[in-house]
Design a protein that fits this description.
Helices cover about 10% and strands about 50% of the residues. The protein has four helices and 28 strands.
Length: about 425
Amino acid sequence: MRGMNKIKHTIYTILLAGLLMAEAVGCQRADQTRTITLPPLADADPDSETIQIGRILEYNSDGPIESMIYPGIGMKGDNVIYLLTRDMANDTSQCLKVDMEQERILDDIYVEEGNVSIFNAFFAPGGQYLAYERIMEEQGLNQLVLFSVENQGMQFFWETRETNEVYQYAWSDDGTCLFTWQDGAGYDPYQDWQITRYKINEQPDKTLRVDKTQFNLEGRGAAVRSVLPSADGSEVYVREDFELLMSGRALDMMAQNKDSSAAAGSGASTGGTSTDSDMDINDVIPPANNWLIDMDEMIMSSLPEYFKGTASPIKYTQAGLFVQEEGGLLCLIGDIGGQATRTELFQTEGMEVCVCGKGDHVFLAEWITPGTYQISGARILEGEAFGRKILYRGTQDSVERLSVEGDHMIVFHSLEYAEPRGHYFLKIVSLEY
């Protein structure tokens, strides 16, 4: 499983980040775009309730695929981005600090060198920290590293020689807490798993103190595990959904039981007694779990099932929990720790959904024609959606990594490949609202 994961991560690794290697090889970048005006959707509401875009910044880069480390992009303030890149000539990885408005490199910060591979690289909101998996193939070591971008300090959170476990990561919105947990599709999904919080405190002398908190959970089988931190990392919403990963196995088991029952004797009377052939799929697949965990007090509260069918939790916000249900229906669950309310917002099938920390803005990325995408947005006021409209359109092969920075800026990037083979063109866009 880890081997497959490495292949996938390698593909992603070469997908998206040596953005500024262009500076070294003399690549040309397009001018900034200051304003883009597009018509609103047909059902848009008055402008007082719609998202108003103030400033649009674009940063363009191109270069060889091998120089990219996906998805090493971080935002610091309103103009500055951090780009994690690979310098193939010098065999080093570095973090480039770039002013999007002036389109120039402010700093080139050394991160790694030598035969070290970087996977799962994620900047904290605000860009001050970079967390990544550090793979040293020759030594057979896998380490989780925290890198302080401005102070250039490095800490190791864990080190293991186990290559089969797959981890997922999430930052709290304030950029102070990193959460890790084992993927539910790992090599042993029945093994107990942990949600670990690393709370980062910067000391007056610029050193970092990291407090580790770990919550243990029972492994109950292959599951999609969603862990969504609150804005300050004090709580996490957790969902363990078995249906997506276990339904195929369950149907196979039911078919085998039915065949076995038929072979045992089709003429025998059951006398009204249930047999294995009467097994329902719900007898094989455990029901989904929903929890709210207080990471400070180490208290876990079980929550009811709010959703219809399979569900993909998106964001745990001040307004509540946003979830994309099967079929694409976007829902908001308010007050999940108390008298929960469920509000159906709108359809988002086939779209990437991003929600701000306050829960009052929703952004959508969707394809309108092959090679043409659009970013749209809507306000969420008192649990209802208003003023959905188009905010931006672009033409490239992909649009990815929609994120809200500082609760006033939507950032995403798009990518396309071109001749010569192994060459990429990348655009990073920032929309202030």
